[in-house]
Records
---
Amino acid sequence: MRQLASAGAVKRLWAKDETLWPHAKEQRRLITNNLNWLDLPDQIGPYMTRAAALAAMVEREGFRDLVFIAMGDSNLAAETVAHTGTPQRPQRFFLLDSTDPAAIQRVSDQIDFERTLFVFANKSGKRIETHALLLYFLNRLRMQKAAEPGKCFVAVTEEGSYLSELAGNYDFLGVFLDPPGIKGRYSSLIHFGLLLSAVWRLDPQELVARAKSMREVCKRPADGGNPAVELAAFLAAAEASGNDKLLLMGSKSLRASTYRIAQLVGASTSKGGRGLIPVCGGLPGATEGALRGCVAVVLKMRNGEEADLATIEATLKQHRVSTVSIEMNGPEDLGSEMFRWEIATAVASSLLEVNPFDEPDVREGRERVSALLDEYVAKRTWPARTARVREKGIELYAEGETRQHISTLSLTEALRTFLEAMPTGGYLAIITFASSSGQTEAALERIREHLASSHGMPVLLSSGPRYLRYFEQVYKGGPDKGLFLMLTSESPADVGIPGAEYTFGQLQMALALADFESLEARRKLAMRLHLTRGLEQGLAEIEQTILKL
């Protein structure tokens, strides 16, 4: 706190002083554009009023379902809203943030296409996943012989973006333009404002008032009870002292919000081999070893379901884990609370001497996807790789650094030696690019629990391709102490992409292979298990194997 006060950090932040963070000359515009996020409390009122008016209009027009499609940051706001029940919400609400054929088919099977409004949210609209889903749903509406299929779509994007051009070409029902140049992770007021006013039907003026109130208290001096600065000091002190794993816990309705915070803090601070590693999804394996090097934040909603959180807080206290508890009064506080976290993260990044607005370690992965798809279309096969182990329908792939650390005598020996390679104070990330279900998610949780308890390490579960938008920068640019276990599987029932020479399942495989190549290129300890008999059976074999370790 003294360091922030002496540096005049609060005054410099609100003056939009880009020298708060280290940056190359060519990054100055990136920082100044992103700092316009601080003005959002004054800008979102008309935006939310228009969103509320559109919501009322589509209800009058007879739309019954709302499908929110996003691959970036807004999907976590949408997931939070979807899990916060309200009698004011007239439509059924679906979130689609995946290229998984099974997930796409599940949504398609539940909706009446001609009475469904599709909201596409993406800053640029150039993401291959977003474009593929847009083509798919447009084609489905044409097959239903919809007279004006574009009138079933709304775009949330930036002015001049590819998505805004598509919206004009297809005559979308509406287009909402974000202020240009602001990263999605610093746009919570836009995302929550849009969704809470349009889906929850909350009063836009109340949401604006809360955002402005939070802004005013976050302008206080560093030593004057500024809640954002206090949070920034907590985060920066944790990282500086070696407690670089941030446990984010929340009640069921706020679980998606913990991932939103994780993406914000992780992607902003994880640069050059330092930063904070977010750990979400509960507290498995709460042993002294698994909690060593951790600090924690617990999110609560007043009058919410807090029994499990009380147990978690008691466990954290027992193991002397430094913990901050945050309670919100209701969903109306979601946008303003995230605004506080954005300020705290930017200020903490200044103490860590990293630029919170860039993502230097994720760009080339996206280029690899296009190259892999081009090769697949030309050859109808993926690049050849040597399986180091083939056993019980599981193929194990490992090269470079990982190949030198593991035994290939059997799957059991390979996994045992892989886990033994864990760096001091490290973590295991299990990244799944495959069609999931309730059964497979439960199996992954059991695997996580067992490994965390038996090996005394945090285990992070990441589902692709959404993980590429949340934690890719953390895994590739943050502290170099992770093990990465990727699980892939062919889609049992694939879905075609109109106009493309590949399917959604093949797109998902390209995303997985590109990410694995990127991890290998950075000499990360990464192993891929390809489950030839499907995810469910493959996980059953993996679960039996790890019980022997």
Note: The radius of gyration is 23 Å.
---
Amino acid sequence: MRNSPASGVLRSVNLAVVRDNPFKSAARTGIDKQPTAESVEVRAPGDRAHGAGSGLVGDFIGDRRNHGGDDQAVYAYAVEDLQWWADELGSALAAGGFGENLATEGIDVNAALIGERWAIGDDVELQVTDPRIPCATFRGWMNRPGWLKTFVAAGRPGAYLRVNRPGQITEGDTVRVTHRPGHTVTIAMVFRALTTEPDLLPRLLEAPELPEETRRMAAAGSTFSLG
């Protein structure tokens, strides 16, 4: 396992452009994220069904049954992984192209431990919770045959984070890893366990910070079926 470096940089903060969603029963989607140079307020959104959806003020979550809420308040993806995908796909990916709220540089997002804490700028503290599991909207948005299987096979899911301490963030802020738990359960491991390597599921229970929904899946031996 690679260790995340102590610090990195927030290369962009991305907010939703709300669009109709022809790919899922949810009428609208916020997967189209665009960078903003303005300071953005970050706060805990509350529960998935009744809260604000996203942890970023000005963002939008369309499918509130499956996305958003405190354990999926913020989605981070590394610019290094976006560049890997650009090389792999043969086309450039703009900031926010994967629907990420935060594009980071210098942080190995997929090697982040469940429960790892990041300080961003002067105020905000986030905590790593879960990997992104690709959905039908993501598949339709990318518009590439077999995209879900392609994304899963690459093992670069990016990370969801919850908001421990609210505040303001801005493009260019420093991202510092301030705490790494003692276990070895990473974002990449959870992703593999929930998709292609179910034998890893018992190991996920070693992370006390694992979100309850994921803990229940691991205990039950359940995985996501992605066609």
Note: The longest strand covers residues 7-16.
---
Amino acid sequence: MAFLDLVLLAAIAGFLGYRLWIILGTHDVDKPIRKRKSEEDDLVVPIRARSAPSSVEVEEDQKTQAKGELEEDRFLQGATLAFHKIVEAYAGENTQVLEKLLDGPLLETFEDAIRKREKSKKKLEVDIGRIVTAEVIDSREEKGKAYVTVRFVSEQCLVTRNTKGHVIEGDPDQYVTVTDIWTFSRALESSDPNWKLVATQVPET
């Protein structure tokens, strides 16, 4: 019996040693096996691979992007037209046109500037040679209104004359590059699709 017990114990010891070798493997003496710091080291969180978008999803994304670009192009066309009309109306002191295209305190600012110019008996002449660029730089919705900000870069000839027609400011033969940042707005629930200019600013240099 003692001999059988020894054989059994030797078999068990051999089996345990074999299992340890499989689990731990071999390692150098100078490189001890890393010890587990906590039970969290044994936790493996599988990462779900993101499937590639289907052809239908890709097509829908392309349509959505194209639609957005088309709407922005249409908006910029209208904004550019409004830019020409507002600049010309301001120079020509046409407050009726400004009332249709401007809104809020900005309209009062333009009308006040026109009254001051009339009082000083000066005439402003503006010729827009061309619009170099027009790009949307911001868009947002706030308190039931949509706002879109556009940066216009144009070449303009700006001249101010006195009552005798003499040039007192500017050069009628020179065009300068002018950058304007305008914000247009419209009520989201309104049936009127037209946008109005509500703010202007000078870009930071």
Note: Residues 1-13, 15-49 have pLDDT under 50 and may be disordered.
---
Amino acid sequence: MPISADEALQIVLDQVAILGVERASIGSALGRVISEEINSPRDIPGFANSAMDGYAVRAADIARASEGNPVRLRVLETVAAGMVPTCKVGTGEAARTMTGAPIAEGADAIVPVERTRGTEAAVEILASAEKGAFVRPRGEDVERGDHVIAAGKALSAADIGMLASLNRAIIDVYRRPRVAIVATGDELVDIDQVPTGAQVVNSSAYALAAAISEAGGEPVVLKVARDRAEEVRARLSEALAFDVVLSTGGVSVGQFDHVKQALDDLGLRQLFHGVAQKPGRPLKFGTMDERPVFGLPGNPVSTMVCFYLYVRPALRKMGGRRTFGLPRISARCATDIRIVNGLTEFVRVTLERRDGELCATPTGNQSSGVLSSLGRAHALLIGPREVSLLRAGDQATVLVLDDAAAVDTEAFFEARLRQAN
């Protein structure tokens, strides 16, 4: 008896855990999940500095300055970024100061060069400035002891820059799961071979490899296993050297579907075989030596939908992420959508704004062999198992595949915020 999609996901997540920690250089850490808390050991910046090219002055000296009533000041020196001022600014004095350069002692404001005129030795200030104007104070970015990056965060480009500012060249990150992909079938040829007769290109392996990388894993595509029991078993044995095993095809009930038997022979502790969903009903899942093993259906859309629903959350959990599933938002059905009663159907849809609402439209042919319809999809609309028809105007839950499809919705940002936390 097939179990529900929710039950299947819970079983998968209950069987996986964070893999462990390794050291990584920040040059290779983009997108990695940091495993340590990062606090600042010092103030950044470590000194007050200028936000503009201009002149460091005493605000009191230029309180009444204007174009009609300029205030003339003596220029003591020029301070470039990286230099330390040598003079103290007193009454009637200024220091020519470049962007990022320290503020000279005695000065408390910067006047941008556009509001001045003058020579090397003197400057006329053409506008007043408040105390602190265009001055970046010490510790403006972070102060000593500030919590900068939380453990469990996937590092962004800005995070990498922040770590560099803190002199953290090497950090602790969660290990990325290494995932073996075993494709099976006599009909499969590789990407460099034009299919003839009844052959098809092994597209699912490449789609899975890309999706694994996107989810934070390290994919390894093994040699295709032909439809012979001993070859399928040999390839699956090879795959057991990895953290996660994915096989595609061979989990149904056909004469040449050898994966199920091979997994059983190798000692799979089967936890379920069959999920009450469309596409992807024949999904098989279990563990061998505590590593998760997914027997994915062979049809390309079924393969990818099962990956998004079950494998992706498992990889994210193993890699230290704090949230696992695709972002969920609500959308209104743009047209009637027929679904299979008794199964949770994941309908490929596009999303667009209509009259201020997000609307979902099926991408066309929903056959499990039509991969192009998944490529056009922004999301998977969840068709509840207890109904057979969603009418135009009905609200539905969708799982977002393409971030760009929903970036103008508050609900999407809320979903992303929940993922970030």
Note: The helical segments are 5-14, 157-165, 203-214, 229-239, 259-265, 300-318, 371-376, 410-420.
